[in-house]
Amino acid sequence: MSLPRCFGIIGDPVAQSRSPAMHTAAFASLGLPHHYVAFHVTPAQLGPAIAGARALGFGGVNLTVPHKQRALEHVDRLTDAARRIGAVNTLVFTDTGIVGANTDGIGFAAAARELDERPVEVATVLGAGGAALAVVDAIVHELLAPGGRLRWVTRDPAALTPVLAARPWLARVVVPTAYGTGAERGARLLVNCTTVGMHGGPTEFPAPIELAALAAGARVIDVVYPRSRLLEQAAALGFRTQDGLPMLLWQGVRALERWLGRSMPEETIAAMRAALG
């Protein structure tokens, strides 16, 4: 029988996180006596919190805002995805050190495939924050068809120049684009990575999003939850839509697989999904 271990999520704020319910359901499904707890940790406390979690024998830790980039200073090794994205959302404690992983991108890709498994020729991503970079990286590596293009939309496209210069694998296929310049035209995948629609966030984009310009059968995904007005408008036009909960689910599945060293069975994934509501 497995001994109980503690896992958790570190954030500031963190009370709103649905990860504890999701992971608690996973452990119950697997018959494991583990616990998953949300920990409110300020940026100044991040280093001691990570060191303390490892010293106490935690099985693993997730990180949410504002810690995903700051955590780079507190790990011994990075996975390829974490190095490419420049952010960490999952810590794996090993005998030889702390491994920083990023399951946001592969979680997004798995969620997007729930709507359609076919590669996309043209994708459009709104927003230039940390979540957007993970989504852009995932689209380029997992979802974009050979010869495809990704339009990365932001208020200041020039600000993406150093980001792309440091990532030539993105620069070859990513086109920095301003709002209001028709970036939606012909796209088969539109992803909102901004805070528009989030509780307490802005209610409008810098320019109207031309959903009618998307390709027929396009997917429209919003990484926030619950469902936003953008998704409601897209659904009304007949597009396939998805909020941020499937991405949350799949990044959690991939984190668990790293921590436990095993694939998650279908019944465990179903239990995790049900716990998210």
Structure description:
By secondary structure, the chain is an alpha/beta fold. The protein has 2 domains: 6-102 and 251-276, Leucine Dehydrogenase, chain A, domain 1 (Rossmann fold, 3-Layer(aba) Sandwich), CATH 3.40.50; 106-243, Rossmann fold, CATH 3.40.50.720. It is 35% helix and 22% strand. Helix 1 packs antiparallel against helix 10 (266-276) and helix 4 (104-115) packs across helix 9.
Give a short summary of the structure:
With 277 residues, the protein is an alpha/beta fold. It is built from 10 helices and 12 strands. The protein folds into 2 domains: 6-102 and 251-276, Leucine Dehydrogenase, chain A, domain 1 (Rossmann fold, 3-Layer(aba) Sandwich); 106-243, Rossmann fold.
Characteristic key phrases:
alpha/beta, 35% helix, globular, Rossmann fold, 277 residues
**Within the largest sheet, what's the order of strands?**
2-1-3-5-6-4
Given this structure, which CATH class of the largest domain is correct? Alpha Beta
| Outline type | globular
- CATH homology superfamily of the largest domain: NAD(P)-binding Rossmann-like Domain
- Poorly predicted regions are none
Largest sheet: 6 strands, mixed
Query: How does CATH name the architecture of the largest domain?
Result: 3-Layer(aba) Sandwich
Mean pLDDT: 95
The topology string of helices and strands comes to EHEHEEHEEHEHEHHEEEHEHH
Instruction: Give the number of helices.
Output: 10
Query: Which structural class matches the secondary elements?
Result: alpha/beta
Distance between the termini: 30 Å
